[in-house]
Amino acid sequence: MKIIKGSIVATMLLVGTLNAGEVLATVNGVAIDKSTIDDTFKNRGMSFDKLSQEQKKQILDRLIERELLVEIAKKDGIENDSDYKKNLENLKKDLLIKAWMDKVYKKTLISDSEANKYYQDNKDKYKEPEKVRARHILVKSEDEAKKIIDELKDLKGDALKNKFIELAKEKSKGPSGKNGGDLNYFAKGQMVKPFEEAAFAMKKGEVSTKPVKTQFGYHIIYIEDKKDASILPFDKVKNTIIDKMRKKQFNNLIKDTLEKVKKESKIDIKLK
User: Fold this and answer.
1) C-alpha separations of 147 from 93, 134, 153, 171, 192 in Å
2) What are the pLDDT digits (tens) for 147-180?
3) Looking at residue 39, which CATH number applies to its domain?
């Protein structure tokens, strides 16, 4: 994990208002405790306890500086400043709206059966295209590519794959060479046209019999695996569907509530 850095303001946003809990430090009698830090880290899928001692100290230093700056601002009379008061009122409104919206969102519930019905009605949205997993050896000249193909042509199965990986590490000029030329899985439209056409025309376990020329040089291709086009199973997309349906339900609830309140309220617009 990277060491957490940032301004004091950023730290204020991270920890929020401190509540009662294990006291980490005091600043002129003001306690800085651990409980709210823990809660905030949990919400972000992290754990304060798992940070290194150095990282914990950095966060604590920022919090101590925060408390000192609060004291300085108070002594300077900022609490009575008109701009501060105006910003504070706006912030209160924003927090009030957020708290209400969080409450509304918690009321949005989508059952597995509702999500499954959406999935059945919209399966086309969850199509996985045909994919190939290819390795390649990229060289500068056609002659060099042909020599490599000759070196591989009599091999099959694991012997072919292992030799291809060895040659890719040794001879390939591409960045994937160090990984044995592995390009992982890709669908049509993700590679340059000549390379893509050659790769998708080949069978699993085959090596290209001719060099494939692109703007990058000459490629020798090995097809490690192929996946036919398919529909993603419901279990793979269920959570995504539920999240999408909840957000739609939430947006509709907000919209309907606003429309209702607008009709019941006296709104006088002065803008011309």
Assistant:
1) 72, 20, 10, 11, 24
2) 999 999 999 999 999 999 999 999 999 899 999 9
3) 1.10.8.1040
